[in-house]
UniProtKB/TrEMBL annotation, chain A:
Protein name according to UniProt: Uncharacterized MnhB-related membrane protein
Key words of the record: Cell membrane, Membrane, Transmembrane, Transmembrane helix
Entry similarity comment: Belongs to the CPA3 antiporters (TC 2.A.63) subunit B family.
Organism lineage: Bacteria, Pseudomonadati, Thermodesulfobacteriota, Desulfobulbia, Desulfobulbales
A GO cellular component annotation in the UniProt record: plasma membrane
Native source species: Desulfofustis glycolicus DSM 9705
UniProtKB/TrEMBL annotation, chain B:
Parts forming coiled coils: none
A single Gene Ontology CC term: plasma membrane
Name assigned to this protein: Multisubunit sodium/proton antiporter, MrpF subunit (TC 2.A.63.1)
Claim: rRNA processing is one of the keywords in the record: no
Topology with respect to the bilayer: Multi-pass membrane protein
Cellular compartments annotated: Cell membrane
Pfam families assigned to the protein according to its UniProt record, in alphabetical order: MrpF_PhaF
Organism: Desulfofustis glycolicus DSM 9705
A GO molecular-function descriptor: sodium:proton antiporter activity
Transmembrane annotation, as ranges: 35-51, 58-78
Keyword Isomerase applies: no
């Protein structure tokens, strides 16, 4: 029996979530839409916690509210400063857009409802199956076991998608300077001195936690990315000699390590992503560590938006004129 | 004790709902941003209270992430506003 206050809490939270989602989509001022989106993500994390899904709640709080909020704010600032004015979108929807979007949404909702009927009815879902094989997975937390072992290819392809996103962003343009003018404030310096070590420590904590409790590479990576972003906002930048090949290697390192671990299976006569039983735990931990590093850099690169200036994604230009322009 | 924690968590959620008025009305961007920041802080309190009431320690980790990351969004906002506010201040100084 749910206690009274908790029941009210559970009723109020979804109502606020729906209102926030609706306002975030329809608000004509883009800045307000971003703020509503950040608030939406914070409360959504609370909802995941109430649904007893701590892993999703952690990811939602870290990636949704923290990194995505910063990404949207930074992107909006950049677009507005390029446009030279505050951006908004039409307050009223065109009737055709309303009808088309409404039809598409209704169709999607109907499809979802229909697919609910087709789901196999399994008492307890796949939970018992995972619990039975947990000992073979090399880790003690079922979610990490599923993400990095039982259904490792999902995570592998997710990381590939993130990499593709960075490649697409880098193809579009060179990065504009991250700050129009550096924030010079003793408050920020003191804040960073305190926050950067704590963020680093907490990232390590969440990463280590992943092997036996809710936590893991993505959550740790967003804390690490938050640290990198703080440094960027304080005017730090990557030295030019690091922004070429070394940065690219670090970006793909996690994916390559995961791929290498996946290929060990076929090389030793097993299936793809079937790790050798004796090495399961060290392999998963190594992949998680390298993934954390790469994902943190990938998230930071998406917020910066654009390839490092002065780096050469294509074969080095031959003409001295182009050489001069690069410098 | 459990009842008290749950009651307080509900009360805090109601304060978040009231905070939505600031996001809706503003009037300035800073009011809206601070309102969202306040949600982060209130969220930490709600998580700790609910964690205490239901004896689940993993909620503390979510609260930790809330507390650490909401600061970064605030800095992103300050970096956005700084130039225009300086300009505003210069205009004010000039006028007075």
């Amino acid at each position: 029996m749910t206690p009274g206050p908790l029941l009210l809490f559970d009723l109020l939270l979804p109502a606020v979530l729906l209102w926030l989602a609706w306002r975030s989509l329809t608000s004509s001022d883009l800045f307000r839409a971003v703020i509503l989106f950040i608030a939406f993500n914070l409360l959504l994390a609370l909802a995941w916690v109430r649904l007893e899904a701590p892993d999703v709640a952690l990811a939602e709080a870290a990636i949704g509210a923290g990194v995505t909020g910063t990404l949207l704010l930074a992107a909006l600032t950049r677009i507005e400063s390029a446009a030279g004015r505050r951006l908004s979108r039409p307050a009223r929807w065109r009737p055709a857009a309303l009808v088309l979007t409404g039809t598409a949404l209704l169709a999607a909702a109907a499809g979802l409802l229909w697919s609910l009927r087709l789901l196999p009815t399994m008492p307890g879902g796949l939970g018992p199956l995972v619990d039975r094989h947990l000992a073979e997975s090399g880790v003690d937390h079922p979610v990490t076991a599923v993400l990095l072992n039982f259904r490792g290819y999902d995570t592998l392809l997710e990381v590939a998608v993130l990499l593709l996103a960075v490649i697409a962003i880098w193809c579009l343009d060179e990065a504009v300077p991250f700050l129009q003018q550096p924030l010079e404030s003793p408050l920020l310096t003191g804040f960073n001195r305190m926050m950067l070590p704590i963020l680093l420590l907490s990232a390590g904590y969440l990463l280590w936690l992943g092997s036996h409790a809710p936590g893991g590479a993505f959550q740790a990576a967003s804390l690490l990315a938050a640290g990198l972003l703080l440094a960027l906002f304080s005017g730090a930048s990557l030295p030019a000699q690091w922004s070429g090949l070394p940065l690219r290697l670090l970006l793909v390192l996690g994916f390559l390590a995961f791929l290498a671990a996946a290929i060990i299976g076929p090389l030793t006569g097993r299936a793809l992503l079937h790790y050798p039983p004796a090495w399961v735990k060290p392999l998963i931990l190594l992949v998680e560590w390298l993934l954390t590093l790469s994902i943190a850099l990938i998230l930071t690169a998406t917020v910066i938006g654009g390839r490092p200036t002065g780096s050469r994604p294509y074969p080095p230009p031959a003409s001295p004129a182009a050489e001069g322009r690069q410098r | 004790m459990t009842e008290l924690c749950l009651g307080l968590a509900l009360f805090l959620l109601v304060t978040i709902v009231l905070g939505l008025i600031r996001i809706r009305r503003g009037p300035s961007d800073a009011d809206r941003m601070l309102s969202a920041q306040l949600f982060g802080t209130t969220g930490v309190a709600i998580l700790l209270l609910l964690g205490q009431a239901t004896d689940r320690t993993f909620w503390w980790d979510v609260a930790l992430v809330f507390a650490l990351l909401s600061a970064v969004t605030a800095i992103a906002f300050v970096s956005r506003n700084e130039p225009s506010e300086t300009a505003q201040q210069q205009r004010d100084d000039h006028g007075s």
